[in-house]
């Protein structure tokens, strides 16, 4: 069930010219500009000074996902080029199991030049230092909308995982708005320094500004850090094409949050800093999962947050209580990590339960990410983006950063 009041996406537009889009990162990632917004005031600094602007006793939470080389290129006997873009695993459903498979797996994929691949199996043959006489086969099982279910299989004398195949054959899928091919340097610069859990097809780009030196500085200041996982899907690039943003369908993403991190959040409520919109969506989803847990028996718990659920729930359950529900559930079921799914849409009128500060880049016009920023700081998003546009800030994935304090007066 979706809200009845329209949310006009044209109200979340601004003029972004191509020259404002950063096509490459800075040579030193922590030298990016940092816009500071708090209590209606805007200032700027350099990212490596971010520790000067975080409250004492902050808990900084970042997304440890790692981008996979998800784009595979096949050629038919006719010479036609077919591009297969792996979005998410279907069988095995678990990312680690699917990427670790040595005997085949099935993924949801987008297909480039799909009309040239009506039937039959596609094959890549490779023989290099890492992969000896390997043949990767792709077979299309079904198509729904603009995605297809692709079964991958491979033949090789050795035990080779799908992750190793993607590393050897795949291409890192940098954002389409960069309007350039992937380069070797992107394999490093389009990963956060703390990325470790493979599964994303796009980087959680707010984290690209961090260096080990910045993390060490935060530690010396007594600022705690913790990590969650949300594997970013291709839907992050999907613009809102409907006049009413409430008609836009959000993509579902898989999240994993350690029990330890949830306990840390409970103990630091009021001082939570989320690195990036993916961390925001993950952490805010925890509140609603906590409500689900309270209402269900362990074997029937709904671990999926629907798109408009936050706007249909009329509850007075406190944040600490909702999070404690998850801890109790994990303890009863002998789990140390919550695995769930979220389709949450954070937009104006949303009530934040967990996040107090957000580190984020500057997002595309008419995007769900810009709606999220507007939900966080209200109409002041106009002033923030006007300042960035008139003070030489760089935009989008490889662009500059901002530290935003939640605007309680939205």
Indicate the topology.
Layout: E1 33-38, E2 41-46, E3 59-63, E4 65-67, E5 71-75, E6 81-91, H1 95-100, E7 105-112, E8 121-126, E9 134-144, E10 147-155, H2 162-169, H3 186-189, E11 197-200, H4 212-220, E12 224-230, E13 253-258, H5 259-267, E14 272-275, H6 277-295, E15 304-305, H7 319-332, E16 337-342, E17 357-361, H8 368-377, H9 381-390, E18 401-405
Parallel strand pairs: 1-18, 3-12, 3-14, 4-11, 14-17, 15-16
Antiparallel strand pairs: 1-2, 5-6, 6-7, 7-10, 8-9, 9-10, 12-13, 13-16, 17-18
Helix pairs in contact: 5-7, 6-7
Tell me what the structure shows:
The protein has 410 residues and is of the alpha/beta class. The chain folds into two domains: 9-67 and 188-405, QueA-like (3-Layer(aba) Sandwich), CATH 3.40.1780.10; 71-171, no CATH class. The chain contains nine helices and 18 strands. The protein has helices spanning 95-100, 162-169, 186-189, 212-220, 259-267, 277-295, 319-332, 368-377, 381-390; strands spanning 33-38, 41-46, 59-63, 65-67, 71-75, 81-91, 105-112, 121-126, 134-144, 147-155, 197-200, 224-230, 253-258, 272-275, 304-305, 337-342, 357-361, 401-405. The strands form three sheets. The chain has a ten-stranded mixed β-sheet with strand order 2-1-18-17-14-3-12-13-16-15, with helices on one face. A six-stranded antiparallel β-sheet has the order 5-6-7-10-9-8. A hairpin with a 2-residue loop joins β9 (134-144) and β10. α6 (277-295) crosses α7 (319-332).
């Amino acid at each position: 069930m979706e809200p009845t009041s329209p949310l006009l996406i044209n109200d979340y537009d601004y003029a972004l010219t191509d020259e404002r889009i950063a096509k490459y990162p800075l040579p030193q990632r922590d030298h990016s500009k940092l816009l500071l917004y708090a209590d209606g005031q805007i200032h700027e600094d350099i990212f490596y000074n971010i520790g000067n602007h975080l409250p004492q006793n902050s808990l900084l939470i970042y997304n440890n996902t790692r981008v996979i080389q998800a784009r595979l290129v096949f050629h038919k006997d006719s010479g036609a080029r077919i591009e297969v873009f792996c979005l998410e695993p279907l069988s095995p459903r678990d990312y680690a199991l699917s990427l670790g498979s040595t005997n085949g797996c099935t993924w949801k994929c987008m297909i480039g030049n799909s009309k040239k691949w009506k039937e039959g199996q596609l094959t890549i043959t490779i023989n290099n230092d890492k992969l000896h006489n390997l043949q990767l086969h792709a077979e299309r099982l079904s198509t729904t909308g603009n995605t297809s279910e692709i079964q991958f299989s491979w033949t090789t004398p050795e035990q080779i995982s799908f992750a190793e195949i993607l590393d050897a054959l795949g291409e890192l899928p940098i954002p389409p708005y960069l309007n350039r091919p992937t380069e070797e340097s992107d394999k490093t610069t389009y990963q956060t320094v703390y990325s470790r859990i493979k599964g994303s097809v796009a980087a959680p780009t707010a984290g690209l500004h961090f260096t080990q030196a910045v993390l060490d500085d935060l530690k010396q200041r007594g600022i705690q850090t913790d990590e969650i996982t949300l594997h970013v899907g291709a839907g992050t690039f999907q613009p809102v094409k409907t006049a009413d943003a409430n008609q836009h369908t959000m993509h579902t993403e898989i999240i994993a949050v350690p029990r330890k991190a949830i306990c840390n959040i409970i103990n630091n409520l009021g001082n939570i800093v989320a690195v990036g919109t993916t961390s925001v969506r993950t952490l805010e989803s925890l509140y609603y999962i906590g409500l689900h847990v309270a209402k269900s028996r362990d074997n029937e718990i709904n671990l999926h947050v629907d798109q408009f659920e936050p706007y249909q729930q009329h509850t007075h359950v406190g944040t600490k209580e909702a999070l404690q529900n998850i801890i109790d559930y994990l303890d009863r079921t002998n789990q140390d990590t919550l695995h769930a799914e979220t389709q949450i849409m954070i937009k104006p009128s949303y009530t934040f339960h967990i996040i107090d500060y957000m580190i984020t880049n500057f997002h595309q016009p008419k995007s769900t990410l810009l709606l999220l920023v507007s939900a966080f700081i209200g109409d002041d998003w106009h002033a923030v983006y006007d300042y960035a546009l008139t003070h030489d800030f760089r935009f989008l994935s490889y662009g500059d950063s901002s530290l935003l304090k939640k605007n309680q007066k939205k």
